[in-house]
Amino acid sequence: MESSFISEIHSLANPARATISQRFFKTGKWEYREWDIFLGLTVPQTRALVRKYAPQLSLDDIDTLLADKHHEIRLAGVLSLVYHARDTSLLPEIVEKYLTARPGVNNWDLVDTSAPDIVGAYMEAYLSEEEKLIFIEDFLQSKNLWVNRIIILASFYQIKQWNAKLTLYIAEKLLTHKHDLMHKAIGWMLREVGKRCSMDELRWFLDQHATEMPRTMLRYAIEKMDKKEREFFLKKK
Q1: What is the pLDDT of residue 29?
Q2: Per-residue pLDDT for 31 more than 70?
Q3: Does the CA dihedral 23-29-31-32 come out positive or negative?
Q4: Interatomic CA distance for residues 21 and 54, integer angstroms
Q5: Nearest to 25 by CA among 12, 15, 13, 38
Q6: Taking 60 as the threshold, does the pLDDT of residue 30 lie above it?
Q7: Cα gap 58→81, rounded to integer Å
Q8: In 3-state terms, what secondary structure has residue 65?
Q9: DSSP H helical segments within the chain, as ranges?
Q10: What mean pLDDT do residues 86-104 have?
Q11: For range 45-72, the mean pLDDT
Q12: CA 20 to 30 Å from 233, out of 45, 128, 158, 187?
């Protein structure tokens, strides 16, 4: 079944769009996704095929998608895992496969569409608060940008449950990360804390850390505040 899935993805290849995608996702020499290969599908096209094929795929079938050299096929793989993650009894096996496939979960769209509903859902369903801290330590210590991004995005699952605790913990640990894509991701999650959980929790975090936060991270975090409050925190830099 996965071979039919892959064949249909290839049938929709669009070389002109693939060229645009390769520029957009920074695949040039020395860029953050150097040499990634695109077929030129749109995300809606990929999602439509996932809806068609994912219900018929076994988790082992999905391994083939996750290991493919083409970006859109790996995206189809992580989205297929997200589909199966609706069955929480499968989450331990899904997380194991997902983490094994981490070398291929290597761009922001692949991470952002999968980490909350796979890693985040697994932590919520299966781990105690103490176990969560142990589980995330490897992600925090990794030198791999995408592994770091997985764990901050995984905390989005708990934000949606109106719980900011894990996000604030991870954000503090990754506060001095060097990469702009992490600054944006952490700032985004902090903004969601204010939006979905508590603006007071966000203010508390910013009171503690605004002076040391990268400017991009801070700007993302305060985006939904009024002008006066944004200016207040920006002056802390």
Answers
A1: 63
A2: no
A3: positive
A4: 24
A5: 38
A6: no
A7: 10
A8: helix
A9: 2-11, 15-24, 43-53, 59-66, 71-84, 91-100, 108-112, 115, 121-126, 129-141, 145-154, 156-159, 165-173, 180-192, 199-209, 215-221, 227-234
A10: 97
A11: 96
A12: 158
**Residue type (1 letter), 209:** H
pTM: 0.94
What gap in Å lies between CA 142 and CA 136, rounded to an integer?
10
Is residue 82 within 8 A of residue 117, CB to CB? The reply is yes
Answer whether 61's CB lies under 8 Å from 92's CB.
no
Q: Under 8 Å CB-to-CB from 111, ≥6 apart: which residues?
A: 105, 146, 149, 150, 153
pLDDT at 51 over 60: yes
* Alpha carbon separation from 159 to 65, 156, 180, 190, 196 (Å, rounded): 29, 5, 22, 9, 7
pLDDT band at residue 23, thresholds of 50, 70 and 90?
Answer: confident
Residue ranges of domains in the chain, CATH in brackets: 1-133 (1.25.10.90), 155-237 (no CATH)
Q: What is the mean pLDDT of residues 186-191?
A: 98
Question: 37 - beta bridge partners?
Answer: 70
> What is the pLDDT, as a whole number, of residue 21?
81
Please indicate whether residue 1 or residue 118 has the higher confidence score (pLDDT). 118
pLDDT in tens, 216-225: 999 999 999 9
Residue written as token pair 């929790």: 201
CB 115 within 8 A of CB 149: yes
> What torsion, rounded to 10 degrees, do the Cα atoms 124, 130, 134, 140 define?
70
Contact 86, 95 (CB under 8 A): no
